[in-house]
């Protein structure tokens, strides 16, 4: 589903939000707002899931009543409500109700911290133009190029169709077709590092997915010297991180991914763990790899001489996207 959705009051609230300030009623919602969210979530499940699933989801939602003041604050944030509308999500507590959120092993309190951290961080650090464009509009263009008669673009939006694998997405478009997506959230660093007291927040990439369509590949590989969509998308996330003054990204480990199963374990390990290792990642915790920004690829000198020119060209494409994404963010300040 696209990120086009309902202007109205929510859009007006976003437009009126001042950079660096939370809505004035941040702490005025209280338990009644959380209880209302529990009831709305339960209603959204009626007729959609079996009784066992309904009971499990409702139980997880009810526990939200004891998860502290940040939860009602989250429920009142204009960008959170706008994002739910754009996604078509009827359950305000989806991050508690669903079986998994971001990883397979986050406790309910950690899920609430992760969701609150992301939206609160965005609300207080980003200008209203960014919030409206990303969470309710068509998204923020980070980079674009016209090569060989084809148009390529990377755009930042709120998560488009999978709500539990990251609140933001960068999508790579080839002639209006999405060929790759990478989704992430800003989470407390303590949730993805081995240090449970780690301060600050981390960019946590959870989703990395490519289309099964193959018709784009030949012109794409010709244009970008056989770069992969995943590398170009990662470069765009790196640019966003650099614009915020960061120097690392965290990527989910396959064993903790919400979508891993016994049947797809090998494929998920290749898609996530092997990819993070290939760009310089190291194990940060049971949940995540830590990847330096910019990504650290194999030295060109280690490659056969006939492959070095193309390898350098691929690095050049990634660097251009990284710089463009960084500039797109800085231009909004």
Low-confidence runs of at least 5 consecutive residues: 1-8, 24-28
CATH architecture label of the largest domain: 3-Layer(aba) Sandwich
Structural class by SSE content: alpha+beta
Strand content: 15-25%
* The CATH C-level class name of the largest domain: Alpha Beta
Number of helices: 12
Looking at the structure, what is the overall shape? globular
**Largest beta sheet: what is the strand line-up?**
1-2-3-4-5-6-8-7
| Mean model confidence by pLDDT | 90
The number of distinct structural domains comes to 2
How much helix, percentage-wise, in residues? 40-55%
Number of strands: 8
Task: Please give the alpha-carbon distance between the first and last residues.
Answer: 29 Å
Task: Please summarize the sheet with the most strands.
Answer: 8 strands, mixed
Element order: H for helix, E for strand: HHHHHHHHEEEEEHHEHEEH
Q: Mind telling me the C-alpha Rg?
A: 20 Å
Task: Explain this structure.
The protein is an alpha+beta fold. The chain folds into two domains: 8-127, no CATH class; 139-330, Aminopeptidase (3-Layer(aba) Sandwich), CATH 3.40.630. It contains twelve helices and eight strands. It has helices at residues 8-16, 30-45, 51-62, 70-75, 78-87, 94-97, 108-125, 128-135, 217-223, 229-243, 265-278, 305-330; strands at 140-147, 150-158, 168-174, 177-188, 201-210, 248-252, 282-283, 288-292. Strands 1-2-3-4-5-6-8-7 form an eight-stranded mixed sheet. It is globular and about 65 Å long.
């Amino acid at each position: 589903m696209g990120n086009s959705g309902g202007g109205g009051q929510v859009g007006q609230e976003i437009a009126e939000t001042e950079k660096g300030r939370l809505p004035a009623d941040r702490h005025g919602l209280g338990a009644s707002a959380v209880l209302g969210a529990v009831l709305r979530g339960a209603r959204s499940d009626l007729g959609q899931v079996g009784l066992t699933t309904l009971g499990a989801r409702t139980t997880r939602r009810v526990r939200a009543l004891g998860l502290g003041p940040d939860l009602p604050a989250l429920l009142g944030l204009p960008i959170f409500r706008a994002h739910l509308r754009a996604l078509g999500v009827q359950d305000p507590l989806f991050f508690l109700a669903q079986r998994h959120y971001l990883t397979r092993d986050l406790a309910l309190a950690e899920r609430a911290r992760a969701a609150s951290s992301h939206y609160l961080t965005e609300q207080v650090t980003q200008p209203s133009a960014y919030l409206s464009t990303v969470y309710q509009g068509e998204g923020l263009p980070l980079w674009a190029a016209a090569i060989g008669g084809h148009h390529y673009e990377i755009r930042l939006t709120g998560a488009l169709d999978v709500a539990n694998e990251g609140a933001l997405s960068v999508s790579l478009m080839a002639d209006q077709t999405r060929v790759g997506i990478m989704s992430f959230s800003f989470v407390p660093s303590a949730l993805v590092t081995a240090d449970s007291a780690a301060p600050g927040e981390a960019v946590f990439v959870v989703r990395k997915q490519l289309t099964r369509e193959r018709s784009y590949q030949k012109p794409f590989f010709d244009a970008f010297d056989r770069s992969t969509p995943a590398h170009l998308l990662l470069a765009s996330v790196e640019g966003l991180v650099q614009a915020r003054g960061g120097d690392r990204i965290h990527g989910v480990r396959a064993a903790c991914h919400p979508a891993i199963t016994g049947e797809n374990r090998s494929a998920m390990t290749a898609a996530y763990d092997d990819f993070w290792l290939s760009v310089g990642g190291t194990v940060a915790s049971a949940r995540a790899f830590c990847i330096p920004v910019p990504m650290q690829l194999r030295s060109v000198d280690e490659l056969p001489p006939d492959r070095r020119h193309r390898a350098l060209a691929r690095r050049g494409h990634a660097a251009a996207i990284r710089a463009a994404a960084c500039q797109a963010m800085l231009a909004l300040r």
